[in-house]
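Here is one chain, start to finish.
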Amino acid sequence: MAEVTVRVLREEHREALAAFLNRRPDTHVFLRSNLAKGGMEDDGKRNDGTWVGTVRDDGTVTSVAVLLSSGVCLLQTPAHIHEILDMLAAAAPRQPTMMCGPTDQIEHGLLHGLVRDRSLQSRHDAVVMNLAVAQLRVPPSLETRQVDARPPMGEELALLGEWHAAFNDEVFSDPRSPEADLKARQWVRAVHDERRDTIATVEDKPVSYCAITASLDDEVNIGAVYTPPELRGRGYAQCAVAATLRDVARDGVQRACLTAMKDNPSSIRTYTAIGFTPAFDWTIARFFPE
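Its structure:
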C-alpha cells in the first residue's frame, strides 16, 4: 500500500489537487472554484486559503481541507481527517467561522480540536443537487413570458438587500440587525457589480432573486435564492434559477449545482421540477465569533 504524507499543499501540488477534486463525485464546486481562482497561501485576498492534504509517494493527492481567507473551512477528507485538521490548525493564520463538507465528514470534523470547543451558532443539513444544463426544464411561465427575468437595476438593489437579509434570517438564523442588514446590502452590491445576479419579474416588478455564488468555465453554483413569503407558491424561484442557467449556457456552462436544505422539502421539489437531482448530503456548521 502506497505511503501517504500529511502536508501543507503549495503551488506545485495544484494540478494533482485539482485532479483529486475532479475525481470525487461529492466535491462541491466551491472547492474547485476557490482552487482555480485563489492562491494556495492565505495572504488575506479573496479565494486565498491554507490547503492541507495527504499526498502519496507518487504525488497523488488523496484527501484535503482548506481554510479560506473568508474563514470558511471546506472538507474533502475521505481519510486522515484528524491528521489533516491537526496540521491545518497549526498552519492557518485564522480560526474558522464555518465548516462545510459532505455530512459524514463534518460529523468527524466537528469532533476535532480545531472547532470542538467553539460554540455552534447553527447547523444546516442539506442536499447538493446537480443538473446537466442541457437537461434544464424551463418553466412554461418563463417560456410564455408570463414571468420575465433580467439583471436587477441599480434602484432595485435596496429592495434586494432587504430580501437577502431576510434570506439570511430565514435560512441561516442570522437575526436582523443594522449590522446584518448592512452586510446583506454590501453582498448584493458586490454580486451585482460582478454581474452574477438575476431577478424574476412580473409586469417588470421583482418577484424572486438568485445569484451565482461560485463558478468555473463549465459549472456554476446557484445560491441566495429568495422569494418573499407573500409571493411563494407561484414558481417564481424556478423562473429566476432557470433564466440564470439559460443565460450561462450560452457562455459554455454545462453543469450547475445548488444546495437545498433538508428541512425545506418544498425547495427540493422546486428544483426537481426544473431538472435538478440529489447528488450528495452536505452540512454547513457555523460558529459564534470568538
